[in-house]
Amino acid sequence: MSSRLLFTPIKLAGLNARNRIVVSPMCQYSSHDGGPTDWHLVHLGKFALGGAGIIFCEETAVESRARKTHGCAGIYNDKHVPMYRRITDFIRANKSIPAMQIGHSGRKASCGPPWTNFKPLTDADAKLGLTPWQGVSPSTVAHREDAQVPHELSVAEIGEVIASWREAALRTLNAGFDIIEIHGAHGYLIHQFLSPLANKRTDAYGGDLQGRMRFALELTEVVRAVWPKDKPLWFRVSAVDGDGGAWSLDDTVQLARELKARGVDVIACSSGGINGPLNMAIVPRVAGYQVPYAERVRHEAGIMSCAVGLITEPAHAEDILQNGQVDFIAMAREFLYNPNWPVHAAKALGVTDYLDLLPDEYAWWLKRREKIREISK
Ligand SMILES: Cc1cc2nc3c(=O)[nH]c(=O)nc-3n(C[C@H](O)[C@H](O)[C@H](O)COP(=O)(O)O)c2cc1C
To answer: pTM (2 decimals)?
Structure first.
């Protein structure tokens, strides 16, 4: 389609993405009993109509107790499979790749949505039908003062949790997704195992870097074993912690190398979230502030990487790719503002057939309008 890298199709395992623009996972707090609703079909469907290459569903819980809120998405029950199938069929029919992010909130479970500042649920909420539940974690360390102390997973229970990732991966496959991303970032369960701030264990799942990585690596092996070879596996990291640097970029590079050896195809680099209510690091929020993390992972671990975080300008996105810093550009909030961002970006970058990113139902009319404009100039 174009000499612009952003719009150059890219091969990824057995898939071809029509461009390198990724809709980053975005929790909607609009699921019922874990299952997606009409909201999700419209929310995700419009990004396919708008021309994105890869569209990620929000963090989707591998167990019921792995949700953060009662409204969080899940894929912990077979009944969820046909509900997601409706969404994946629509995304694929409109030339985008349907991708799933699976995750486990661990000790960050049992809270309200962001507009309550993720306030932990209490007995008062129970009276409104929002019963609190206890989260799980490597150690009995709460992530904020007003949160419940989590249950410390025994080694046998760790095995059960890992098995739930396998089941979720199989359901994800049956639901028609082409990519899985394992959510290892933002202070959720995998990140809790990785970080010495949350992981105080003295057994094989704690202690040094190798011990703290064990949960992430075992779980990745289990998911990879059931996820077909021709379908890519992504892993999202918090490349650095927002709190005291307890998890460093060097650690992330080491983790990325181990993940690559276990068949992970792409590392998506976010940051922060181990302590406190919000999911982002305390790093200066300049445009593309996490690009250097994804760049280092790409070069030092020799694995494809995806940048995310305040990338909104087409020329900036293109430069990041042209500079060889990363392989994919993910965006979240900009897609909420403009679901047709790829079309606008293609036009801004001088891609002549930019309207072809839209479905015929729209493109035919808009091309006609362009012609009329040309004639009447
Ligand atoms: C509404 C909303 C929900 C989010 N939910 C998730 C999520 O489910 N999983 C995840 O890894 N990141 C989540 N994030 C973080 C985004 O994927 C992204 O990393 C972050 O917003 C920075 O990118 P941006 O500047 O393009 O918005 C969410 C962000 C927003 C705005």
So the answer is: 0.97
